[in-house]
Predict the structure.
Amino acid sequence: MVNKIFYLSKKTQKFYSSYLETLFFCKTSPPKLINGLIKRDRVSYYNGQGYLGTMEYTCLPAFNLDGNKIVTCQNGIWSPMPQCICMNLLILEFFS
C-alpha cells in the first residue's frame, strides 16, 4: 500500500481553518447565571478563535437550580442555561 501525502494551498488551509472555527468555538463568553455562581470553570479562550469547554453553575441560598447545572460549548453554541428559581415562589405555586 502506498502512503499519499496531500498538500493544501494556503487559500484552502485558510478556508478549512475558518470553517473549523465556526464549528467548534463559541464566539461569546460563557453565559452568566442570575442569582447563581460559577462552581467550576473549565472554559478556555483560544487565540482570538473563541471559547471551548464547560461551566458548572450553582444557585445562591434560597434558590433552586432548574435545568442542567453544566453548560457546554458544542458546535459553536452554548447549551441551554439553567435558571435559579426562588424557593419561596415554588412553595407558593405548590399551595395555590
Q: What stands out?
A: The chain has a mean pLDDT of 79.
